[in-house]
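Lab manual, section 2.4: Encoding a predicted structure.

Procedure: take the sequence of the chain (172 residues), apply the prediction step described in section 2.3, and record the output as structure tokens. A sample record is shown.
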Amino acid sequence: MARNYFELFELPARFDIDLKELAARHRERIRVWHPDRFAQGSSDQRRQAVTMSADLNDGLKVLRNPVSRARHLLSLRGISTDEETDTTMDGAFLMEQMAWRERLEEGAGHPEDVMALAAEVAQSRDAKESELARIFRGDQAADLDRARELVRELQFLERFTRELDCAATEAL
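Recorded output:
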């Protein structure tokens, strides 16, 4: 099993975490474990500092991002999102994505259209993140299946949001 980053930062294992608190805990721990502090130490101490610094940085990266945080919570419960092998998605979600892509193509070159679509996608993403927060407060098996679906949907929305950002930049 992968390292439990919530334990590493002494945070509760839940979706809705305080990102400022996470950053503060990262800063205090990286100060303690920074490899430069162990430059004169034994090879074991230097190796441990490098490993711990890498774990702290990886943990910050995972917990700071909502999709990777949810994926981590699922993995701690023994659930894989199987992005590489499972390509099935909810039909309604796929239809919504197709409609958004068509709107992006039609709105290319029109900043106001791209910005309106970006706001709609952000609203959808926020709703899915709120649902994840609710699910991880409960922890029922059926809900964890839904959490798995939401993670996969949010991964798509992350990619699409990057495309929207590029399209908005090009339209300006």
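Check your result against the sample. The chain is about 75% helix and 0% strand.
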